[in-house]
Amino acid sequence: MDILATLFGNKQIIKLMRLFLMNAETGFDTDDISLRTKIAKTALRSDMTRLKNIGFIKQTSVTKDVPAKSKKGKPTKKRVEGFILNQDFPFLSGLRLMLMSDHMVNRTEVVGRIKKAGQIKLIVLSGVFIRENEGRVDLLVVGDNIKKASLDSALKTLESEVGKELSYAVMDTNEFNYRLSMYDKFIRDILDYPHEKLIDRIGL
């Protein structure tokens, strides 16, 4: 049972609130919001209206790239109507604690999605998933025969739930073991600092 979805009415509004909380200084137009949350534009209107009416977000003007009409042309920019977090909303601190907790995503679902991408040997969560802003990455995936398209799809889904673009590293088992044996700084910076292992078939 998804407790937050029950509290707030649906998972959609949680995704929207996390997007604005994670990107407090950034304005988004409807196209960006739909793309980042993986919510169809036709389904956005009612929840965006709710968030605007309670003062959680407010309208703003955002700059958007407009593709050139020809291959040789340069993209242009235009100002469009968008939305941004209202920093004066009285319950921001409480919502951050609730919606940006260590368990903002279901661990079992994360494993299930990533396992579909190949022979996964190690999944390590760090950074945003455990509220460690100084982490080298948010996610480390080690495995073999990994299908890039499948992994990309899993990561995009995760990003839509977390509300931000994830920093992640992917490598095969041989590369990981070699870098581990050489005390590679990047690997040590992940494993020597706070992290959470969801799968460990390497035996760390």
Describe the 3D structure.
There is one protein chain. This protein is α+β, with helices and mostly antiparallel strands and 204 residues long. The protein has two domains: 3-99, Winged helix-like DNA-binding domain superfamily/Winged helix DNA-binding domain (Arc Repressor Mutant, subunit A); 107-200, Beta Polymerase, domain 2 (2-Layer Sandwich). Helix content is 43%, strand content 21%. The strands form two sheets. It has a four-stranded mixed β-sheet. Helix 2 packs across helix 4 (41-53). The two termini are 32 Å apart.
Quick take:
With 204 residues, the chain is an alpha+beta fold.
Whole-number count of domains: 2
CATH topology of the largest domain: Arc Repressor Mutant, subunit A
- CATH class designation of the largest domain: Mainly Alpha
Q: Main sheet, how many strands, which sense, barrel?
A: 4 strands, mixed
The dominant shape is globular
**Name of the CATH homologous superfamily of the largest domain:** Winged helix-like DNA-binding domain superfamily/Winged helix DNA-binding domain
The CATH architecture assignment of the largest domain turns out to be Orthogonal Bundle
How many alpha or pi helices?
9
Order of helices and strands: HHHHEEHHEEHEHHE
Range of helix content:
40-55%
Strand content: 15-25%
Average pLDDT over all residues: 89
Q: Which runs of at least 5 residues are low in confidence (pLDDT < 50)?
A: none
Q: Span between N and C termini?
A: 32 Å
The beta-strand count equals 6
